[in-house]
Amino acid sequence: MLPALAQHAIAAFSHAGDLVLDPMCGIGTTLVEAVHLGRNAVGVEYEPRWAELAAANLALAEAFGAAGRGQVRVGDARQLVSSIPRALHGRVALVLTSPPYGSSVHGRVRVEGGEVVKRDLRYSEDASNLAHVGLPTLIAALQQIFTACATMLRPGGVLVVTARPWRRDGVLIDFPGAVLSAAEDGSLVPVQRLVALLAGLHGDRLVPRASFFQLQQVRKARSAGLPLRVIAHEDVMVLRKAP
Ligand SMILES: C[S@@+](CC[C@H](N)C(=O)[O-])C[C@H]1O[C@@H](n2cnc3c(N)ncnc32)[C@H](O)[C@@H]1O
Q: Where in the chain are the domains?
Protein backbone atom coordinates (compact mmCIF):
# COMPACT_ATOMS: atom_id res chain seq x y z
CA MET A 1 0.00 0.00 0.00
CA LEU A 2 1.33 3.44 -0.81
CA PRO A 3 2.05 5.28 2.47
CA ALA A 4 0.27 8.39 1.15
CA LEU A 5 -2.93 6.37 0.71
CA ALA A 6 -2.73 5.04 4.27
CA GLN A 7 -1.98 8.53 5.65
CA HIS A 8 -4.98 9.99 3.85
CA ALA A 9 -7.41 7.30 5.01
CA ILE A 10 -6.16 7.42 8.63
CA ALA A 11 -6.42 11.24 8.75
CA ALA A 12 -9.88 11.19 7.14
CA PHE A 13 -11.46 8.41 9.21
CA SER A 14 -9.88 8.50 12.68
CA HIS A 15 -8.61 10.88 15.35
CA ALA A 16 -5.46 11.08 17.48
CA GLY A 17 -5.60 8.47 20.26
CA ASP A 18 -7.90 6.17 18.25
CA LEU A 19 -7.10 2.52 17.57
CA VAL A 20 -6.39 1.42 13.97
CA LEU A 21 -6.35 -2.24 12.88
CA ASP A 22 -4.92 -4.00 9.83
CA PRO A 23 -5.86 -7.72 9.81
CA MET A 24 -3.46 -8.52 6.89
CA CYS A 25 -0.79 -5.99 7.71
CA GLY A 26 2.14 -7.16 5.53
CA ILE A 27 5.22 -5.10 6.41
CA GLY A 28 3.06 -2.66 8.37
CA THR A 29 2.36 0.42 6.23
CA THR A 30 -1.01 1.00 7.93
CA LEU A 31 0.52 0.58 11.40
CA VAL A 32 3.50 2.86 10.73
CA GLU A 33 1.41 5.67 9.24
CA ALA A 34 -1.10 5.33 12.11
CA VAL A 35 1.50 5.72 14.87
CA HIS A 36 3.08 8.67 13.04
CA LEU A 37 -0.37 10.31 13.10
CA GLY A 38 -0.74 9.74 16.85
CA ARG A 39 -3.09 6.75 16.61
CA ASN A 40 -2.41 3.38 18.25
CA ALA A 41 -2.26 0.42 15.94
CA VAL A 42 -2.57 -3.34 15.94
CA GLY A 43 -1.79 -5.62 13.03
CA VAL A 44 -2.15 -9.31 12.23
CA GLU A 45 -0.01 -10.99 9.56
CA TYR A 46 0.07 -14.65 8.50
CA GLU A 47 3.76 -14.71 7.51
CA PRO A 48 6.26 -14.43 10.41
CA ARG A 49 8.78 -12.98 7.92
CA TRP A 50 6.55 -9.97 7.11
CA ALA A 51 5.34 -9.61 10.72
CA GLU A 52 8.98 -9.29 11.80
CA LEU A 53 9.53 -6.53 9.23
CA ALA A 54 6.34 -4.79 10.36
CA ALA A 55 7.59 -4.87 13.98
CA ALA A 56 10.97 -3.48 12.85
CA ASN A 57 9.20 -0.73 10.88
CA LEU A 58 7.14 0.13 13.97
CA ALA A 59 10.28 0.26 16.12
CA LEU A 60 11.83 2.62 13.57
CA ALA A 61 8.73 4.84 13.60
CA GLU A 62 8.94 5.02 17.41
CA ALA A 63 12.67 5.87 17.19
CA PHE A 64 11.70 8.71 14.83
CA GLY A 65 9.31 10.08 17.47
CA ALA A 66 5.94 8.63 16.41
CA ALA A 67 3.44 9.47 19.14
CA GLY A 68 1.29 6.34 18.84
CA ARG A 69 2.10 2.77 19.85
CA GLY A 70 1.79 -0.28 17.63
CA GLN A 71 1.89 -4.05 17.93
CA VAL A 72 1.97 -6.90 15.43
CA ARG A 73 0.72 -10.45 15.91
CA VAL A 74 1.42 -13.45 13.74
CA GLY A 75 -1.91 -15.09 12.96
CA ASP A 76 -4.59 -15.96 10.48
CA ALA A 77 -7.03 -13.10 9.92
CA ARG A 78 -9.81 -15.67 9.53
CA GLN A 79 -9.35 -16.22 13.28
CA LEU A 80 -9.09 -12.49 13.97
CA VAL A 81 -11.39 -12.59 16.98
CA SER A 82 -9.03 -14.94 18.83
CA SER A 83 -5.86 -13.10 17.63
CA ILE A 84 -6.88 -9.74 19.07
CA PRO A 85 -7.05 -9.29 22.88
CA ARG A 86 -10.60 -9.24 24.14
CA ALA A 87 -10.11 -5.82 25.72
CA LEU A 88 -9.80 -4.33 22.23
CA HIS A 89 -12.96 -5.88 20.78
CA GLY A 90 -15.43 -3.17 19.81
CA ARG A 91 -12.77 -0.46 20.36
CA VAL A 92 -11.31 -0.07 16.86
CA ALA A 93 -12.06 3.24 15.10
CA LEU A 94 -10.64 2.27 11.71
CA VAL A 95 -9.76 -0.96 9.92
CA LEU A 96 -7.50 -0.21 6.95
CA THR A 97 -6.33 -3.14 4.86
CA SER A 98 -5.42 -4.43 1.43
CA PRO A 99 -5.99 -8.12 0.72
CA PRO A 100 -3.50 -10.44 -0.99
CA TYR A 101 -4.43 -10.92 -4.64
CA GLY A 102 -3.39 -10.68 -8.27
CA SER A 103 0.23 -11.82 -8.46
CA SER A 104 0.46 -9.77 -11.70
CA VAL A 105 0.36 -6.55 -9.66
CA HIS A 106 2.95 -7.53 -7.05
CA GLY A 107 6.53 -8.73 -6.83
CA ARG A 108 10.10 -7.61 -7.18
CA VAL A 109 11.66 -7.62 -10.61
CA ARG A 110 15.37 -8.36 -11.04
CA VAL A 111 17.69 -9.18 -13.90
CA GLU A 112 19.45 -12.45 -13.07
CA GLY A 113 21.80 -14.25 -15.45
CA GLY A 114 20.61 -12.08 -18.34
CA GLU A 115 16.93 -12.89 -17.67
CA VAL A 116 14.17 -10.79 -16.12
CA VAL A 117 12.75 -12.69 -13.15
CA LYS A 118 10.07 -11.87 -10.62
CA ARG A 119 10.15 -12.82 -6.94
CA ASP A 120 7.87 -12.37 -3.92
CA LEU A 121 4.76 -12.14 -6.06
CA ARG A 122 2.78 -14.34 -3.67
CA TYR A 123 4.22 -13.26 -0.30
CA SER A 124 5.37 -16.84 0.49
CA GLU A 125 5.42 -20.46 -0.68
CA ASP A 126 2.85 -21.45 1.98
CA ALA A 127 -0.23 -22.70 0.14
CA SER A 128 -2.45 -21.59 3.06
CA ASN A 129 -1.50 -17.94 2.50
CA LEU A 130 -4.59 -16.39 0.93
CA ALA A 131 -2.42 -15.19 -1.97
CA HIS A 132 -2.44 -18.79 -3.23
CA VAL A 133 -6.16 -19.55 -3.20
CA GLY A 134 -8.54 -19.09 -6.13
CA LEU A 135 -10.85 -16.10 -6.37
CA PRO A 136 -14.03 -17.76 -4.92
CA THR A 137 -12.08 -19.09 -1.88
CA LEU A 138 -10.39 -15.71 -1.39
CA ILE A 139 -13.72 -13.87 -1.47
CA ALA A 140 -15.26 -16.34 1.02
CA ALA A 141 -12.24 -15.84 3.34
CA LEU A 142 -12.51 -12.06 3.03
CA GLN A 143 -16.18 -12.26 3.95
CA GLN A 144 -15.19 -14.13 7.12
CA ILE A 145 -12.41 -11.60 7.87
CA PHE A 146 -14.65 -8.55 7.32
CA THR A 147 -17.31 -10.03 9.62
CA ALA A 148 -14.62 -10.37 12.30
CA CYS A 149 -13.51 -6.77 11.57
CA ALA A 150 -17.09 -5.63 12.22
CA THR A 151 -16.83 -7.24 15.68
CA MET A 152 -13.57 -5.33 16.29
CA LEU A 153 -15.00 -1.96 15.18
CA ARG A 154 -16.69 0.36 17.61
CA PRO A 155 -20.17 1.60 16.64
CA GLY A 156 -19.75 4.14 13.82
CA GLY A 157 -16.22 2.78 13.11
CA VAL A 158 -15.00 2.57 9.53
CA LEU A 159 -13.59 -0.22 7.35
CA VAL A 160 -11.42 0.93 4.42
CA VAL A 161 -10.30 -1.70 1.90
CA THR A 162 -8.07 -0.98 -1.07
CA ALA A 163 -7.99 -3.29 -4.08
CA ARG A 164 -6.89 -3.11 -7.70
CA PRO A 165 -8.60 -4.65 -10.66
CA TRP A 166 -6.26 -7.01 -12.52
CA ARG A 167 -6.19 -8.97 -15.72
CA ARG A 168 -6.14 -12.72 -16.19
CA ASP A 169 -5.48 -13.86 -19.75
CA GLY A 170 -6.23 -10.32 -20.88
CA VAL A 171 -9.64 -10.24 -19.17
CA LEU A 172 -10.26 -7.55 -16.55
CA ILE A 173 -11.21 -9.04 -13.15
CA ASP A 174 -13.45 -6.75 -11.09
CA PHE A 175 -11.79 -7.68 -7.82
CA PRO A 176 -12.80 -4.40 -6.09
CA GLY A 177 -16.47 -5.10 -6.86
CA ALA A 178 -16.19 -8.61 -5.41
CA VAL A 179 -14.42 -7.25 -2.30
CA LEU A 180 -17.14 -4.67 -1.77
CA SER A 181 -19.84 -7.35 -1.94
CA ALA A 182 -17.86 -9.48 0.55
CA ALA A 183 -17.60 -6.57 2.98
CA GLU A 184 -21.28 -5.66 2.91
CA ASP A 185 -23.13 -7.42 5.67
CA GLY A 186 -25.84 -6.49 8.11
CA SER A 187 -23.60 -4.25 10.20
CA LEU A 188 -21.22 -2.79 7.58
CA VAL A 189 -22.79 -0.31 5.18
CA PRO A 190 -20.92 1.07 2.12
CA VAL A 191 -20.56 4.85 2.32
CA GLN A 192 -17.95 5.74 -0.33
CA ARG A 193 -16.11 4.18 -3.27
CA LEU A 194 -13.06 6.21 -4.21
CA VAL A 195 -10.17 6.03 -6.62
CA ALA A 196 -6.58 6.40 -5.44
CA LEU A 197 -4.23 7.28 -8.28
CA LEU A 198 -1.06 5.21 -8.19
CA ALA A 199 0.61 7.54 -10.68
CA GLY A 200 2.99 10.36 -9.96
CA LEU A 201 2.33 13.87 -11.23
CA HIS A 202 4.92 15.51 -13.48
CA GLY A 203 3.54 18.95 -14.28
CA ASP A 204 0.16 18.13 -15.79
CA ARG A 205 1.27 14.65 -16.86
CA LEU A 206 0.48 11.42 -15.03
CA VAL A 207 3.50 9.16 -14.62
CA PRO A 208 2.24 5.62 -13.92
CA ARG A 209 4.28 3.36 -11.64
CA ALA A 210 3.30 0.20 -13.49
CA SER A 211 5.60 -2.77 -13.10
CA PHE A 212 7.75 -4.10 -15.92
CA PHE A 213 5.34 -7.04 -16.34
CA GLN A 214 2.24 -4.83 -16.46
CA LEU A 215 3.85 -2.66 -19.13
CA GLN A 216 4.96 -5.72 -21.07
CA GLN A 217 1.45 -7.24 -20.94
CA VAL A 218 -0.14 -4.01 -22.21
CA ARG A 219 2.47 -3.51 -24.96
CA LYS A 220 1.97 -7.08 -26.20
CA ALA A 221 -1.82 -6.70 -26.21
CA ARG A 222 -1.62 -3.39 -28.06
CA SER A 223 0.67 -4.74 -30.72
CA ALA A 224 -1.88 -7.57 -31.18
CA GLY A 225 -4.59 -4.93 -31.73
CA LEU A 226 -6.21 -5.13 -28.26
CA PRO A 227 -6.50 -1.56 -26.88
CA LEU A 228 -5.51 -2.29 -23.26
CA ARG A 229 -4.35 0.44 -20.91
CA VAL A 230 -2.06 0.27 -17.91
CA ILE A 231 -4.05 0.24 -14.67
CA ALA A 232 -2.89 3.25 -12.64
CA HIS A 233 -5.35 3.32 -9.78
CA GLU A 234 -6.59 1.40 -6.80
CA ASP A 235 -10.23 1.30 -5.72
CA VAL A 236 -10.83 2.39 -2.12
CA MET A 237 -14.01 1.05 -0.55
CA VAL A 238 -15.30 2.67 2.63
CA LEU A 239 -17.91 1.01 4.85
CA ARG A 240 -19.24 2.15 8.20
CA LYS A 241 -20.48 0.07 11.12
CA ALA A 242 -23.97 1.07 12.13
CA PRO A 243 -23.82 3.51 15.07
C1 LIG B 1 -1.42 -6.79 0.02
S2 LIG B 1 -0.48 -7.48 1.34
C3 LIG B 1 -0.62 -6.26 2.58
C4 LIG B 1 0.42 -5.20 2.42
C5 LIG B 1 0.33 -4.12 3.48
N6 LIG B 1 -0.87 -3.32 3.32
C7 LIG B 1 1.58 -3.27 3.44
O8 LIG B 1 1.54 -2.15 2.90
O9 LIG B 1 2.62 -3.74 3.90
C10 LIG B 1 -1.52 -8.75 1.97
C11 LIG B 1 -0.91 -9.52 3.12
O12 LIG B 1 -1.86 -10.48 3.60
C13 LIG B 1 -1.12 -11.55 4.15
N14 LIG B 1 -2.01 -12.70 4.34
C15 LIG B 1 -2.34 -13.68 3.49
N16 LIG B 1 -3.20 -14.55 4.05
C17 LIG B 1 -3.43 -14.09 5.31
C18 LIG B 1 -4.24 -14.55 6.40
N19 LIG B 1 -4.99 -15.66 6.29
N20 LIG B 1 -4.23 -13.85 7.54
C21 LIG B 1 -3.46 -12.73 7.68
N22 LIG B 1 -2.67 -12.25 6.69
C23 LIG B 1 -2.68 -12.92 5.50
C24 LIG B 1 -0.02 -11.76 3.12
O25 LIG B 1 1.05 -12.52 3.66
C26 LIG B 1 0.35 -10.31 2.78
O27 LIG B 1 1.41 -9.87 3.58
A: 3-198+233-241
* Residues 139-179 pLDDT 10s: 999 999 999 999 999 999 999 999 988 877 778 889 999 99
Region of 90 (left: φ > 0; alpha: ψ -120 to 50; beta: rest) is left
Model confidence, pTM: 0.91
- Spatial separation of the C-alpha atoms in residues 29 and 26, rounded to whole Å: 8
Report which ligand 1 atom has the smallest distance to the Cα of 78: 19
User: pLDDT of 122-139, one tens digit each?
Assistant: 677 788 889 888 899 999
The answer to whether domain 3-198+233-241 has CATH 3.40.190.10 is no
Q: Name residues contacting ligand 1 (CB within 6 A).
A: 1, 24-30, 44-47, 50, 76-78, 98, 100, 123, 129-131
209 CA from centroid of ligand 1 (Å): 21
Taking a C-beta distance cutoff of 8 angstroms, is the pair 163, 183 a contact?
no
